[in-house]
From TrEMBL, chains A, B:
GO molecular function: sugar transmembrane transporter activity
The keyword Membrane appears for this protein: yes
The name this protein goes by in its record: MtN3 and saliva related transmembrane protein
Keywords linked to the UniProt accession: Membrane, Transmembrane, Transmembrane helix
Amino acid sequence: MNFDDIIGTAAGIFTTIGVLPQIIKALKTQEVKDISPYMFIILCIGVGLWTVYGFIKSDWPIILTNGISFILNGIMLSILIMQKRKIK
Amino acid sequence: MNFDDIIGTAAGIFTTIGVLPQIIKALKTQEVKDISPYMFIILCIGVGLWTVYGFIKSDWPIILTNGISFILNGIMLSILIMQKRKIK
């Protein structure tokens, strides 16, 4: 692993775990009304496309981190949808 | 602009504009208590590092989109900090 891979992996770790505090907060408080679901819909599409980009470039830091990011953003989106249903 | 640049740019546009609906919602409602500030702190560090990664690889879609993403996440973080001060 060379220097650019280390920076790429560190970058990917931060952007990937970024959603975790929001997931934990939402699960703890069960309050999500201030959060925009559109943000997580758009982010899912975006990191999904980054994963494709990583495959085209055979760039593993991009593939791995955005793949996991896609799953985590998907979890957050699911929480938002489930909470919205509960309110109804 | 070839195919991988197009995918990279599309990916970057989505992950960049993803924060916008949240910024608009926060400015409209002035309610941010359900949003985790840690999410945006970590995302700022992450996209900042992605920008560095882009410079190392001379990869313009990565530099541009993550650079703008850094600014937008920074704006969202500022809103959160200002709202927190208002509550106090």
